[in-house]
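Record filed here:
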Amino acid sequence: MANENRKNEQLDTFRVNDNGKTLTTNQGVKVSEDEFSLKAGERGPTIMEDFHFREKMTHFDHERIPERIVHARGFAAHGEFQVYESMKEYTKAHFLQDPSVKTPVFVRFSTVAGSRGSAETVRDARGFATKFYTQEGNYDLVGNNIPVFFIQDAIKFPDLVHALKPEPHNEIPQAQSAHDTFWDFIANNQESAHMVMWAMSDRAIPRSFRMMEGFGVHTFRFVNEQGKATFVKFHWKPLLGTHSLVWDEAQKIAGKDPDFHRRDLWESIEMGNFPEYELGVQLLAEEDEFKFDFDILDPTKLWPEEDIPVKIIGKMTLNRNVDNVFAETEQAAFHAGQVVPGIDFTNDPLLQGRLFSYTDTQLIRLGGPNFHELPINRPVCPFHNNQRDGYGRQTINRGQVSYHKNSLANNTPAPASEAEGGYVHYQEKIEGRKIRSRSESFRDFFSQATMFWNSMSEPEKQHIIKAFSFELGKVKSKSVQQQVVDMFANVSLELASSFAEAIGAAPPAGEGSRVTKSSPALSQLNTVKSPITRKAGVIIGEGFNGSEVLAVLNALNSAGIQTEVISGHLGSIKGADDTELEAVHTFLTADSVLFDALYAAGGSAGSAESKQQTAYFINEAFSHYKPLGATHEGISWIEENQLDNYPGVVTGENMSQFAEDFTEAIAVHRHWDRKLV
């Protein structure tokens, strides 16, 4: 708790509220005029001695910093983490020892491919980066919402990103992988097969950051007080379950509300619906390193949870929004190499490259070596060393000594022994020749991609087929299309044949994969299903049955479902019994894609246009497999559109029973057993 308070107090010293304050320059000089620059006469030229103009304009000219090359589009929140039980058996990391200790955290979610101005519901991997402000220093768990990656060696990072980004000759398309250079890269770098399966699945279009898993991707080490190491992979499990959008819905949301994911996170925290994630670890003894049919250090491979169970060890709660997106979210500097005693690295070649790259990119993005002194990056524990000067230096170091070893300051600051908490790298024995090569154990590119396919439910498989069909349908090169078809025949002949037919390519040759292994944990069909924080749009018209509809809304709200009224106009909508509800949306300002469910509550349908718009809303929600509810006149709206008697469509005259049944339908999230449309 003291650690959490220390971080909040530290940030408080940098927080400023300008409301009611006198305008000054950055040097504190009070400003008498901020509308007009200093001129030689009312119609004369501006005078350069106007220091206020120069300061204001210079700061404005330099307000923007280079956006991240990848993960540019991001949003973040503050929170806290508590371990459930001591992990002393495996690691000496202090923040994983005491269940009573609350460690402050800062979490940044992001898309990978798009620029800062791109939409948030695009098909893409999502970043899930967590900064723990521990008593031993900052620890960054920098992961994604997908447990594997495209490449095995960091030297391929520039190639991957160059291929993924908008094509350089016309800078098209933005925030999309549906173009020639990306798929040309995939076809010619087939280690990416497993990651591509995830990227073409529902995991790449999450419902929200709150309903998205996170993974550390790499294999790390825990090291305990006795120096014993255990291989570890990190997982974040959302308590609301892992849920996704459907592709048509994701595309429409990108136009209706490109800020959909950040708005959802912001509003949820503001309403007190704090996102929660449990931290899980997969633990593997060093002596078991070679007991599997894959290399545990290969970042294109996951550890199947059925073979190596996930042990849940703690919970993270995001409970406070940022005060300033630039100062916190944009200036946050994450680095996979920022670890604390008890957490160490492995020889994963992708991880090894990240240990260099992340610091290097912060140097240019944040203007120099002192990015660690920015409030959002500053550790809660004291830090002392002989590093000095540079752009953006905030520390005022006192004294004449800034080197080691020294006698003038009694050889301080002095290194700490391991017993005193000094970081000591795990002493792994390493032998080998200097060589540019890849281990033979990394050369199986397809078996886990097939395992992923085998693990999917039938609706999920159909979504993957359609995703390949869409993406490759945007590719202009027939050669690249055919190369991808032939490549993914190694994953599944059914998959490759299906999207080959859709894009007009030749059927793939060969027998496909013989891998039969599956992992039920990979299917979202098996995730937690809960109505809590789901958002239901309530369509009503004037003269609705006020008391009964209000009873339904109260029951839904009690179940944790958020309800928002949609009608033909904003403001008060009067019921037949003088009950009033406030319409916060009209058919023009809202859309069915912005809700998890729709409730047609009845009332006068109003104009022919309103009736048509109501029909559009409920038909679109139905086509996205969402739950639909109807009472009173709303039942006729459902019947007129021939949507009754389908799974997930709930109607009723008994308000109590209706609310119960509709709540259960909302918890299901999608009703895939409807006829596919």
Notes: The longest strand covers residues 310-321.
